[in-house]
Structure formats: C-alpha cells, structure tokens
Amino acid sequence: MAKIGINIVTGSLQQAELIVGIDLGTTNSLVAIIHPDTKKPIALKEHDSSSLVPSIVHFDSYGNASVGEVAKQYLETEPQNTIFSAKRLMGKSYNDVKKNANFFTYKVIDDNTESLVKVQVGNQFFSPIELSSFILKELKQRAEHIMKTPVTKAVITVPAYFNDAQRQATRDAGKLAGLDVLRIVNEPTAASLAYGLGLRADEEKTIAVYDLGGGTFDVSILRITNGIFEVLSTNGDTYLGGDDFDRLIIQYWLQQNGLSEEVLHNNKQLSQTIRLIAEDAKKQLSNLSITNYELPITNDDVRFSLHDSLLAKFNFQLSTADFNKLIQPLIDRTITSCSDALKDAGLTTADVDTIVMVGGSTRVPAVKNAVSNFFGKPVNDTVNPDEVVALGAAVQADILAGNNKDFLLLDITPLSLGLETMGGLMDVLIPRNSKIPTKVGRQYTTYVDGQGSMRISVFQGERDMVKDNRKLAEFNLTGIPGMPAGLPKVEVNFLINADGILVVTAKELRSGVQQSIEVKPQYGLSDDQVEKMLMDSITHAKDDIQTRALVEARTEGEQLLGVTEKFLTKNAGLITQEEMIVTAQAMQALQLALTMEDKNLIQAKTEELNEVTRPFAERAMDAAINTAMKGQNILGN
Fold first, then answer.
1. Poorest-pLDDT segment among 153-162, 228-237, 617-626
2. What ranges make up the beta strands (E) of 238-361?
3. Given 78, 111, 138, 211, the catalytic residue
C-alpha cells in the first residue's frame, strides 16, 4: 500500500518522501522545501521568527550542546565554549588555518601537522564534522517540527571552491545528523535555480554568481543551456567574507583608541564583545551614515598594554565613508576575481546576461555598487540573499524527488567507493549519488620507513570502518623505492566509465611504478541490499564517527610517539636532562592512553606531548638553520 503524507499544519497532501534543501553557512544556516500548495521554494521558519539559524554551537559544563540563537548568547560570556565559523575549519589542517587562528575565541589545536584540525572545549575534542552535525541536526529537527513529518533526506550546498575533503566532510556531518545526503550542490548552481534560471527547457543564458558570505567568497560563471548547468569558470577566496569586514573595523577601533591587538588575544570575552559590536556597526551602515558605541573597558581588560590606574569608557565610532575606505581593498580583491573568472571563461562583461547576488555581505551598498559598475548593468538581488542558496537547494531536492519532470537525471553511483587506510578506516573517493562517468584522484604515502609495497583494497559502502562495507577488489603496488615514511607519493585514481565499470589505478609518482584493476561495483547487489546498507550507515552514524575518531586519535598518537623517539635519539645533545624526564613521562602517559577506549584522553595526552616537545623542537630547527648558514654570505638591501 502506498503511503500518503498529510501536513497537519496546512491540511494539504504532500509527497510520500520529503527531501529538504539545506544551506550550511559560515554565519547562518537554514532549511527550505518546495511548498506543497504553491510549488514555490520557501525557507522554513516558526511563526514570526527568522528562517536563519546562527551557525553557532555552545557546550555547557556537562558537555551538552545547544545550537543557534540559544548558543549565540554565550559568545560573550563563554567564548571558549562557544564555536562559530566551524565551516571555515571543514576539511582543513591546523597548518591551513594557523595564520588566522587568533580570529577564533575557542581553542583550535596546534599540533603542527597536516592532520585534520580539532577544537578543544574543556576535556572534549571535536572535529569540524561533529560541530557541523550539531547544526544540521538542529535544522533537521526544525523541519520535522514545522512539517510534522520525519525528515531523513537532504540536499546540502557547499561553496564552489570546496575541495574533495571539504565536500566529504559535509556529507559525513549530514550522516552524523541522521540525514541521507542525496547530493552536494555548488552554491552558485543553487542560487541560479532559486531565481528560476535554467528551469525552462528553451532557456540559454550566461550568469555570474557573486557570492560573498560570512567567511568565503566565490564568483562563478555559469552557462545554462536546455536546463543543463555548465560551470565555465570559478574564482574566489576561501578566506574572504563579512568576518574580514568585521576584523578591519576592530583593527580600526583599536588604533583609534590606542589599544594593541594583544588586548583581544589575552581577553577572549572582550574580543567577542568588540567583534559583535563591529558586526552590528557593519549592518547599521547600510542605512546610516555614522555609528557610535561606548564600551567600558577596565584595567584588567587591558593590563597587557596599558597601566593607567583607572580607565573610563572607550568610544567606537565609524562613518560610512571610513567603512567604505577600510573595506575597499577587500572589495577590489573580489572584483579582481570577477575579472579573472571572465578571462578564464573567455568572456567579457558584455557576455553576461544576469548577475546574481548571494550572501548577507552583498547587502553592503559599496559591494553592490562595485559589482554593478564592473559588469556595467544592475545586479539581481530580488531574492533574499541570505535565503537564496537554501531555496535553490530545495528546487534541486524537488528534482531529485522526481516532482520536476522537465529535468533528466543522469546515472549515479548507488553507494560510495573508497579505499582502506590505516586502522581499517574507509576513505571515500567517490561519494554515493555521484554522476557517471566520473574520475577522482587522491595521494597517499607510506607509514613505515623503507616500505616497498602498498596494498590497495577497494570497498563499497557508507560505513566508516571497512569491515562493515563490501570488499570489491584488492591488489599490491610493488616496487616502491625504499624511502623514509611519508616521502613516497602514491596517487590512486578511481574512474567510473559510462557503463558503470570502475578502473582503479595506483602510481608511485617518484619512480613511475604503476598497477591497475577493473571492477564492476554494482554487481551482485539488489535494490534492497543497497537500501539496507544506506539505512545501516544512518543508524550507526554516531558509533561509526566515534570509532573513526578513536582510530584516528590512536594512529596520530602512535605516529607522534615514533617521531618523538627518533627525534630524541638524533638530538639528545640539544635537550636538558629535565626536558628528557618530562618528555619520557609525557610519552609514557600517551602510551598508556593508547591502550584505552577514550578518544578525548588520547588526544589530550597527544596535545600534552606536543606542548612538551615544541620548545626543543624549535631549538633543533634553529640549530639546523645556523649550521646550514655557516660560511654563507647573506646579501641585504
């Protein structure tokens, strides 16, 4: 018997399967659907509240998480326990974000490695995937509460500039939140769909999508022909957005009041207060010509830079003219990106039919004017720039639900395809629902010194551990030159052709050694088996993520112990006896932690060993540089 859903709120019939569109944003996130009656995309909101859910997660003293407006109130009072802009950390290592680490008022772990970044709150460690999952879970619950029906399937948008690791991290966050992520859609494509562009079969247009959000900027040149979206070029900056406008305002105010940046670095609460005032000033200046704030700053707040016995209120004033002058270099950078994107597409501004504005930061009049002047025509900003991406995701979800018959859905992969990595983890190269044909490559390296071969094990499935997935094939790449661990570069390519045949190729880039195998991934699986594998991945998502985090923490801890042991042997002359004793104790503590099933304990002991070894590691580096420079003539200006 077919199931028919009825919306209790509207009383109208709805499709048996509700697929939502989600914009997981840096500053705000939201969820949208196609209205069952009007067939138009709408952003879901309760009563008169905003459709926007602040992308903020707060942890109380018991480790319980709250999300959105409830969490936002703790930005000033508990900045160390309140996580914002987690999207900026997705798929990144500490080395990727360290130059902007002072922007975060919570602790981003500095392990000086290329492993994915972690955030410490009290004695707990969280990955950006886990933090994003809290936001997605809140959006899921909001949709279920409003629609009075379970929500298990979603389309989630990402910036066009997101790489493979960031896209996979977004998928994993959705899975952890209890969502089957049917498609990851580029934000510019979603924005175009929200404007109805590309929904007519006879339409041919060239579109520029200018997307300036809280943390990222990108511009995409799209050509739409007969309902097919072709990305001609993209350009942008994954570290440019409204947050940077706020930072410039803060720096301006600090100079205005004779305060150093060290003040904010040493007082996270004051830092957050001034950041929120700067954000408010930016918004106010869209309508006002000047803003003025007074903030009482005590002696304790600035004890690192001022020594007056008593400090009164500080004045934070900003005019539109000064604000525009401050942000002009950033706006110029976005316009340069627009120019570069056009050059890459082989087009001029005259070839662009429509300019679509996306992201809350496009509300700044100076931004709007600069874009309009560059393209020589008015911009299209009639759809709410905060909602436009989520609305487009809802349109895409409607197409996937089969409600829009004008679109032809291409063949897709029914289950994810990946490799086994250290600790028996599944590293996904081709996520499920990827269009066929497709090709993806990724580089790997060795774990042991002198390792001469590498086993390539190919798996299909949605679970985090390969033991829970389906093994498709295995082969050995032999003849890898004997090198220290981490030096060999083995590139593995997955190619699925139009017939659904998977070709896996592994090549050691330094020596040229190569091996390949052909697999038919769909062979022997019924629709029911595929469905069961998908449901198992959602059901066990929390356990899977915890197991993965534990395995990754152990692997990282074991690697650090190995590296530290080698370092101590090689550089014993640079280390004092006291340092040697403290290091040995930290190593012993980590060794003990590795035998336990506590991911947070392992990461805490790993971080402690990092802290202990950092000073003499820096000394060894300095000594190596000095030795290398002896006898060298250094030329100066």
1. 617-626
2. 290-296, 313-319, 354-358
3. 211
Query: How many helices (H) does the chain have, and how many strands (E)?
Result: 16, 28
**Residue 151: closest CA among 23, 25, 9, 33:** 33
The catalytically annotated residue of 72, 76, 87, 468 is: 87
Tell me how crowded residue 201 is: count the other CB atoms within 10 A of its CB: 10
Residue at 165: amino acid letter: A
Write 494-499 long-range contacts (CB < 8 A, 24+). 494/417, 494/429, 494/430, 494/439, 494/440, 494/441, 495/437, 495/438, 495/439, 496/413, 496/417, 496/430, 496/434, 496/436, 496/437, 496/438, 496/439, 496/521, 497/436, 497/437, 498/411, 498/436, 498/437
Report yes or no: 92 and 115 within 8 Å, Cβ to Cβ.
no
What's the predicted TM-score (pTM) here? 0.68
Q: What is the distance between the alpha carbons of residues 453 and 290, in angstroms, rounded to a whole number?
A: 66
CATH fold of 543-629? Substrate Binding Domain Of Dnak; Chain:A; Domain 2 (1.20.1270)
* Annotated catalytic residue 308: no
Query: Domain coordinates of the chain in residue numbers?
Result: 16-195+384-409, 198-382, 417-533, 543-629
Helix H, strand E, coil C: the string for 383-419 is CCCCCHHHHHHHHHHHHHCCCCCCCCCCCECCCCEEE
**Bigger pLDDT: 366 or 315?**
366
H-run or E-run covering 544: helix 541-570
Instruction: Assign a CATH topology to domain 16-195+384-409.
Output: Nucleotidyltransferase; domain 5 (3.30.420)
Query: Is position 23 annotated as part of the catalytic site?
Result: yes
> And the tokens for 508?
């050691």
Strand-pairing partners, residue 518, are 503
Query: Which superfamily, per CATH, for 417-533?
Result: Substrate Binding Domain Of DNAk; Chain A, domain 1 (2.60.34.10)
Contact 18, 33 (CB under 8 A): yes
Contact 320, 288 (CB under 8 A): yes
* pLDDT at position 342 over 90: yes
Q: What is the CA radius of gyration of the chain?
A: 26
pLDDT at 209 over 90: yes
Instruction: Give me the percent of the chain exceeding a pLDDT of 90.
Output: 34
597 part of the active site:
no
Residue 303 confidence (pLDDT): 47
Q: Is there a catalytic annotation at residue 211?
A: yes
Q: Which residues are paired to 430 by β-bridges?
A: 417
- Please check the confidence at residue 5 and state whether its pLDDT lies above 50: no
Which residue in 172, 187, 243, 468 is the catalytic one? 187
Give residue-wise pLDDT tens across range 100-145. Answer: 666 677 888 766 566 678 888 988 888 898 999 999 999 999 999 9
